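Loading example: each entry is read as two labelled lines plus one structure line.
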Amino acid sequence: MGIILYEEPELKDPFMIVGWPGIGDVGLIAVDTLRATTEAEELGEIESWDFFYPKKVIIKTGILEDLKFPTNKFYFKRFERNDLIFFLGEEQPKKQTASGYAEGEEAYRMANLVLNVAEKFGCRRIYTSGAAVAFTHHSVRPRVWAVPNTEKLMEEIKKYPNTILMSHVEGRGGRGFISGLNGLLLGAARKRGFEGVCLMGEIPVYFQGLLIPYPGASKSVLKVFGEVLGIKIDFGKFDEKYQGMEKKIEDIYSQIPSEVKEQLDKLKELGYLGQTDLEPLSEENRKRLWDEISEFLKKGDGRDEEAI
Amino acid sequence: MKRPFEFTDQPELENPSIIVGWDGDIGKIAPGVIDFLNKELGGHKFCSIEPNGFFSLGGVAVEGDYIRFPESTFYYGQKKDLVIFKSDQPDHNHYTFLNSVLDVPGHYGRIKELFTISAMVSSIAHTAPRRIFAVFNQPELQEMLQSYNLKGLTWEGPPAISSFLLWIARRREIPGLSLWLEVPFYLAVIEDLEAIKLTLSFFDRRFNLNLDLGELDVKIREQNEKIEQLRIENKEVNKYLGLLESGLGLKEEVQLKLAQKIYEYFKRDREMR
C-alpha cells in the first residue's frame, strides 16, 4: 500500500514542487503549468484508493469494468542546477470538516508518502503553493506571500520577486495559518529535516468563495518559480489559455451591485501600497480604509483557507 | 495497526459467502431482506466493526424519536456457508472499512461469493413485476448465474458503496455481484415488500434456504390493498397510477405529488394503528 514508481532515475539535488487543489486552484495551476512547461516525465503515483472515495464507476452490460479515483502523480525533469520532482494531487484527502480541507491522519499519511519519495531521490527542499486570501483588488497585480519552514531561508526568500513575508502583510504581524496539505506537508517536512517554502498568490477576499480558477494569482507564483528555478515560462501562452477565465472574473465583478463595488474599489488603494511610486496613504487613512472594508465584508479576522 | 473489528463469538464457518446490506437504502430492501434472513435462519451477532475512524462521531442522530448510532454487524445462522453483514454506510476511510467487511468472513477460509443488496428508483407501477439488475465483478460469475434472470446493468457515473466493495473484492479475487432491485419511486421512502420478496427468492434459490415467504405474501397483499383503498378515495392518485400502469411517464412534480400522497396515507395508517 502506498507508492508505485514507474522508474527510478538518478536525480541531482532535486527540488520537489507540490500542487493540490484549493481556493482558485492557485497552486495547482501554477505547478501544473510548470510541469507542462518543463515537459516533465511521469515518475510514479500514490495509490489513491486508500485515501479517496472513487469518483466514477464504469459498468458495461452487468460487468464492473473499472473504478476511477482522483490521481496523485509524481513527475521528474533533469536540469543543469537542480533536477525537479513534481507532485500533483487531484484532490486533498479530507474528512468531512467544516473547512473542507485536508486534516487528520489521512492527510498526514499522504504528506509523509510524498516526503518518502522526496527522500528516496535525495531531495532536500520542498515547495508548496496555494492561495492567500487578501484585502486586495483583482485589478491589482497579486503579490506572493512566502512562508518558509525554517528561519534560515528568510534571507533567500526576501530576494524573490514580488514576494512578501507574513510580517509584511498588512495586519498580520507575521502570524497566520496555512490550512490543508500545503501547510501540513511543510510541517511534516520540517519534522523530517527538509527545507520547505509555501508560495501563495493573493486572491481578493471577495472571490474566495467562488469555485472557479484564479489564474492571476497562479501567474504571480509562476513568476517566482521561474526566477528561483531558472525556468523560462511562456506567459503569452499562459495568458491565452486563461483568457476566458479572466473575462469570467470580470463578468462576475460587473454583476456586483454598484454600492458594493464602490466599497470593493477601495481595495485598489490598499493593493497599490508598496507597488508604485505614488505617494502612499497615511498610516491613519490606511487603517480607516482597512477597517471600513473589513466591516463591509464582515471578514474582519481575515481567516483564509491556505493562508491565515 | 489494531484491526477495526471485534469478534464476540466464534461460529463454525467454512468458506462462507457473504451477503451485505446497507441501512437507509431505497425501499428499505437491504434491511428488510437481512432482518427476514436473520429471523428465518436464527441469525446471531458474532462480530462488529468499531465506528471510530469510519463514522462522524460528533454526536448522534435522532430518528423516529430514538437515538441512532452507527452499527456494522456480522451475523451467522444455521448455515455454515453464509455470513450476513448489515451496516450504516461509513463516512470516512471507506477502503479500510470495506476491506474489514471481507476480512471477517475471510477469517474462516476463502470467501466463496459476495452479494450486495441495493435498490434503484424506477417509474414502474407497484402492480408491475420487479426486475433485478446486477453488476458482477467477474464474467465467470455472470455466466454461472445466467439462469437467474438477472439484467446486466450499464452505467457510468458516481459509484455506490456496493460498487467500491465489489471492486475491492475483485482485487482480492473474490467473485461478487451487486443486486440492484427496481423500486417504484413512490415506495422508495416507504418499503417495497415485493422487491424484498424477489431478493429473498434469489437467495432462497442460491443457498437452498427453503424460506417460508407466506407471511411476506400476506404483508404484500395488505400493502397493495392499502394502495387500492387510496385509489378509491383519491381520484388523482388513481389517475397517476393508471398512467404508470399504462407504461406512461409522469412529470417530476407529479411524481413528487404522488409519492407524497402515498407516503402520507401510509403514515396516517401507521399512526391510527
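Residues 272-281, 299-308 of chain A have pLDDT under 50 and may be disordered.
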